[in-house]
């Protein structure tokens, strides 16, 4: 029963009394701390192996391009538009619209 857990060992040591139970409590505490060290080292090794696998096999991201200056702060020569968008072609006043076009599509 004392080999099942630290709590069971401390329970048996309490039943043995202070004189006979003291060495059992010391041995149980040493074994528990030793097992915790082994578990912590094993967990750290698994974490390091996982980090190495991620670094070696997962693709990296390409860096984002540097943001351009806003259109209002760019210098434009004479006759150049202030925006980078192409000019909007509007139909002549009497020309029919292409099928499937709605009024809301023109605003985009």
Structural overview:
The protein is mostly helical. It contains three helices and no strands. The protein has helices at residues 6-16, 18-57, 103-106. α1 runs antiparallel to α2.
What's the helix and strand layout?
Elements: H1 6-16, H2 18-57, H3 103-106
Helix pairs in contact: 1-2
Instruction: Characterize the largest beta sheet: strand count, sense, and whether it forms a barrel.
Output: none
- Low-confidence blocks of residues: none
Mean pLDDT: 79
Portion of residues in helices? 40-55%
Number of helices: 3
Write a brief structural summary.
This protein has 108 residues and is mainly α. It has three helices and no strands.
Labels describing this entry:
3 helices; mainly alpha; 108 residues
């Amino acid at each position: 029963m004392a080999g099942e857990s630290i709590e069971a060992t401390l329970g048996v040591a309490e039943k043995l009394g202070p004189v006979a139970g003291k060495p059992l409590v010391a041995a149980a505490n040493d074994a528990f701390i030793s097992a915790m060290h082994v578990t912590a080292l094993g967990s750290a090794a698994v974490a390091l192996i996982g980090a190495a696998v991620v670094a070696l096999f997962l693709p990296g991201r390409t860096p984002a391009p540097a943001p351009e200056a806003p259109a209002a702060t760019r210098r434009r020569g004479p006759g150049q538009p202030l925006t980078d968008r192409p000019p909007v072609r509007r139909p002549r006043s009497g020309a029919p619209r292409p099928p499937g076009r709605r009024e809301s599509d023109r605003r985009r």
